[in-house]
Design goal:
Blueprint lengths: L2 H30 L7 H25 L12 H26 L5 H24 L8 H6 L5
Length: about 150
Amino acid sequence: MFYNARVYIKTAFGFFLAGILSGLYLYGAKIFNWPIPFTLASAHSHLLLMGGVYLMILGVAVWFFPRPKKEDKQYKPTRISWFYWIFTLSTSSRFIAEILWGLRVSDVFQLFGFICACLQVLAAIGLVYTLWGRIRPIGSKVRESSGERF
């Protein structure tokens, strides 16, 4: 398994754990009348979907897709690392900002959360862009031309 695949999948597990714990708090808050930020449901869902599911899909994709071609201009390990860190930090920061805004700590967190969301979208697009050249047929093209169907 490639290093990036391991990192994406482990990070996805971390986001899943944080999302599950925030969901548990959300459920407990409704039962026991704990204080609950009005943004917690959104933050919880976002953490599970973007942090957990998106990174899990990317990790598995990096693992299964063939290595990039030598002439692939989109694949640059340094660029991928930057996109990963921007995505991971902006996802975490957005979660925290949404919680703090929901607790009405300051409306500044609403703007900060939106900036994090923009960074998150840009990094998500960047990660897909860097993987795009790796989505190609290797052996299936030969098998399909010989008449094999899947």
